[in-house]
Amino acid sequence: MNLELLNHLFSEVKTPELYGRYITNSDIEKCLGNLSKPKISTIGYSVEERPIYSLKLGNGPIKILLWSQMHGNESTSTKALFDCFNLFETDHELGKRFLEECTLMVIPVLNPDGAERYTRVNANEVDLNRDAQDLSQPESKVLRHIYTDFKPDYCFNLHGQRTIFSAGETEHVATLSFLSPAQDEERQLTTNRKAAMAIIAEINELLQSEIPNAIGRYDDGFNLNCVGDTFQNFGVPTLLYEAGHYKNDYDREEVRRLMFVAILKGLDVIVNGVDISKYEAYFGIPENAKCFYDIIIRNAKCSHLDDLVDIAIQYKEVLIEGKLQFVPIVEELSKLNNKYGHKEIEANGFLVKTTDNFDLITGSEIDFVIVNNERISLKP
Known about the structure:
By secondary structure, this protein is an alpha/beta fold.
């Protein structure tokens, strides 16, 4: 398996019906009817009675459970999963091999109410990834029931992350991030944790040539309320995937491709036999830090401040009339020497004002700025 092959396959099987960040049940329902190989089931209902779907593919001995959109506004991996489903519909040897060696149980949208609202939480405003012990929500109970009934050998917990994350304390954005969650307070390196680490290490090795220095790993502080920690605690190797940011890719279409590659590589490592001795390479992946803003305006003069400052702008993702909008918010006014912007604007000491000739104030929403009489859009 190599990147050239996987990128070529992606171009052939990408699901055109799914695009952008706002992906709901109604979007995936348009795609489910195009699939012939999976057994598609309704495995439960959300708080607001939206169906939760599962797809069962393959008949191999290795059982892998995958779920996406546990957080309703994290849709990139859902798109990548449907691209994988399209691959499995073809006669390509790679897809056929996975379905011969594995049985995949996939929940593409675990939190359909959150997906509809474009929120992290469900309709009861509960974070499902903090409900693994209480199982207070119907969506949490659905996932646990599937886990108990299916008895997976591996779990892929598919998420998305904000644009703020860097791969280490560096100027490199964390385009993808991973974690082999802890399963106890001591964060012991058990056999199943090492297996998850070894898989992640091989995914990282493959992708470094495409996104060098742009893969991070999350801190493994233990929290049994998190689903990944709980399933790891049950003794099943569990991998957290996080789809992050790629340059100018606010629709997460390039990251979708990289998630497609990462999911298939994870399956490939499992099918080939996980070499646990490779787990140590996992620790060579830098730990995530928060070094990025969406925009930084450097060396700006503000009339209400004595010294030059850097102006940090962060997008707030807002659903307006069924469409996702990126609203620029002034986040910070200070010298940001150890921070980076996905876009940087050099003010060169000139006064920065709003188009209404007001000062920029922390917390304010602003679509344009005036720098040296030039009107500059802050929209992506």
